[in-house]
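Methods, example record. To illustrate the input and output format used throughout this study, we show the complete record for 2-dehydropantoate 2-reductase. The sequence lines were provided to the predictor; the line carrying structure tokens was produced by it.
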Amino acid sequence: MRISVIGAGALGTFYSAMLSSSGQDVTLVCRERDVEALGRGVHVTGLLERTAHPRIAARPPPSDLIFVTVKTYDIGSAARGIHVEPDTLVVVIHNGLGGDEMAASILGKGHVAAGVSYSGVTFLEPGKVRLSGYTETVLGSVEPEVQKRLDVAKEALEKAGLMARITPDIRAAQWEKLYANIAINPITALTGLNNGAILEIPELEALAAEIVDEASMVSKALGIKTSIDPVENAFKVMRDTYNNRSSMLQDVTRGKRTEIDALNGKVCELGRAAGIPTPRNDTITALIKGIEKRHSS
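The corresponding predicted structure is encoded as:
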């Protein structure tokens, strides 16, 4: 089976290294400027050690299974570069909401699924990442015909030593992770703190709870049914990933654009549509956009 991983950031490097080192046929698709560096191999350090040499390409080759791991704001351009064959399965692994829908609007019906990755990966340099934690990758699609084919992706991940499961309700799974992301990512990006330190400051802990409570009210208004307590789960993630540096903190440290629009910004957008006030998320979104503006100036 021909596997491509699109995006050579933290997640893409991690997944490509794991898949390739298990003997699978993998191509890592990256920006042209990184082809030479990645041609020397991809390396995972930290919780486990892996070195692999997947094929490196600047454009996606014909593939049976494609994992899209780019930032949410790059999913559209990544999808437009994909040529799907009749049986190509495209799994969009991303934080926040709306990424798989964007890909499906470009690639058409019968191809796109979503993935929710519970992992802590820090980008060090092109081809090198540090893993601080991995629990599972949750897979699902809103299209029944695509849902039936997800065993292909699950088996590829399991062969790579990565726990994976298929959920019958991928939207609920996305919201369950979103609850933690919208509390952890912007607060750590604004303060520079690691995830767990939020719980050591009562004012930040209270702010995190309020952010998540607003999102919970929005999801209920949309008919999303999750199996967790949103606030307690967010706090559990903070404890479990105590020393992690969130992806948004990594982004602002490197002066990069963040995924705030697909996280807290999406909660604000959906809240307005549903008539649910989201003042904490409105404020936190504005503050992160201020940081982005400073970096772009």
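Annotations derived from this record:
The longest strand covers residues 112-125.
The chain has two domains: 2-168, 171-296.
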